[in-house]
Structures
1.
Amino acid sequence: MKPRLAIVTTHPIQYNAPMFKKLSERGMIEIMVFYTWGETALSKYDPGFQKEVTWDIPLLEGYAYTFVENRATDKGSHHFYGIVTPQLINMLEQWKPDAILLYGWNFKSHLSVMRHFYKKKQIFFRGDSTLLDEPKRFSIKKIVRRIFLKWVYKHIDVAFYTGQSNYDYFIAHGVKNEQLIYAPHAVDNDRFINPDKEYTSQANRLLNKIGINESHRVFLYAGKLKENKNVSLLIQAYTELAYLNAHLIIVGNGALENKLKQDFGDTHNLHFLDFQNQTQMPIIYRLADVFILPSKSGETWGLAANEAMASGCVVILSTNCGACRDVIVEGKNGFSFVAGNKEELKEKIKKIMELNNLNEMKLFAQEYIQKFSFDKICEAIEICMLS
């Protein structure tokens, strides 16, 4: 009989569901995913994009799942009481898992599962928090939070860490080195690497529609237009460089959309596109030579960087992106810059404009991101389940 793994997470996510499918298809273990926001989470208003978002790729195919009734008043909320699932523990006990994998502790129901099954079942944990946004100065709040999180993580047996910054976070909160298993943050690489020439031809048609010469260098940001993403810094850096043979494309919507368009709408070779759903993203990344993620806070990883690299983009990441230390090989597949430092960002853009080997860097980026795959995550889980 195969070992049984119960996976407890909030809702179907475009980055997790394909991995659940792969884990099920590999056939080493049996899984059941318990979605704790209930069925209402399939389509929800995303405050970051400021619109209702329903992903256009299948998120409920190829693996076993169930929706747990959520009785919270504010369903789908990210606050501690945003999930109230009195049936969850009983449902887990009835399914009789050998281990439970929790995505996040910071909901009352998730923390209750962790505490209830502690020392009864193997408790695995997946989260991508970092210390990047933690204040460097002394504060009582920081000390209290550190003490509380050490108590939380005493209830787990294994944490699957995503990368170096996530590893540092777990160590700082009392998780022992032998409890930490590397399971790199990943996207569905195959979907973005797909060599189907139709992606490229569609991208070329879109470039022509936008009015971009295919010989020009194209920089791209794709994501939410909100304060922590620091898109204004990127546009300012690009504007001040004033290259005639370069373009910057900003893809997405959000709270700062109108202000960015008002402030920079007349900028030479700057183009705004609305939010694009998942099936369009492999085409969007193929518009660009370079993907830039300038976030100043709140970027525990930045999975768009994985997608961009898999699509053949060089990347520039701020040091406050959790992925920065893991996915950037300086000068080989991109560059990093100190978060918030406009002059350093400009220097990195200049380097890109002066490069003669950009195609080599693109190929290296596409090859390097293969180290960050769903297979690696599945292998880490299977090793823990089968050992």
2.
Amino acid sequence: MPVRSILLAALLFAAVPVAAQQPIEAQMSADEFRAAGLHKLSADELASLNAWLGRTIDAETGKAAESARRQVEDENRGFFSFGSSEPVVGRIVGEFRGFARGREYTLDNGQVWRQVDAASLVGARRDGPEVKISPSLVGNAWYMAIEGYNTRAKVERIK
């Protein structure tokens, strides 16, 4: 789904500047234009209004695009090499029963991670421990650490 999110965001923000380029009189019906009192403006005043609207729409579009970019990056952390490289911090839903290859860990933010290495933490039992999942310095590996334990496990995000 990350690719779908990216494409949707790109399409939405690519279409906004096209609409912003039209003068206000082209975006409103004649009745709306008259009801707003804009027909009383001189040509210079109308041009100034259109210039201000264009700058405002460009600025707000830029803010919205940046916000959407950050949201898409945050939502897609851990998938492939896309998304933010900030660590994921949260809590495991339910009981943590140690590390084991193939085990899945659901976080309180809805993300699901699967252990892909042979790291083990036998006998560990904690209810809803805090976890920190950090990216490796090189490549696209992510490592999960459980609060209170020194062992880390290599994990991949599956949801």
